[in-house]
Amino acid sequence: MTNLKTEMAFPVSRKPILKPYRTSMGILGEIMQIIMDAGMEGVMVSELSRKSNLSYNATVDNCQKLVTASLVETSRRGRNYMFVITPKGTEFFHEFKRFQEFTNEMNLRC
Prior knowledge:
Helix 2 crosses helix 5 (87-105) and helix 3 (45-52) packs across helix 4 (56-68). The longest helix is centred in the last third of the chain and has 19 residues, at 87-105. The protein has helices spanning 4-7, 24-38, 45-52, 56-68, 87-105, and strands spanning 43-44, 72-77, 80-85. The chain has one domain: Orthogonal Bundle (Arc Repressor Mutant, subunit A), CATH 1.10.10. By secondary structure, the chain is α+β, with helices and mostly antiparallel strands. The protein has a three-stranded antiparallel β-sheet. A hairpin with a 2-residue loop joins strand 2 and strand 3 (80-85).
């Protein structure tokens, strides 16, 4: 009778798998992607916070940066603020994605 432990020996990696930290531009790009995916209806801060894996306050701060740059607009629906991407934001987002692809090819973090 053979020992199961010896037959089922799997190589164990000692290196932990680390995810690279997100850059501030990367976070803004993710937020814009989520807002674009929401379409013309927009997205609430709480949903945006959950999908981007950021705290509520960090999400509001980043959205304020996008509003200041005229890439995103806010609208009010009842008690909730909704974020909607502007045409300028859509154009910027597409150029940003092209830039990200270029930096990934060069093995740079963006």
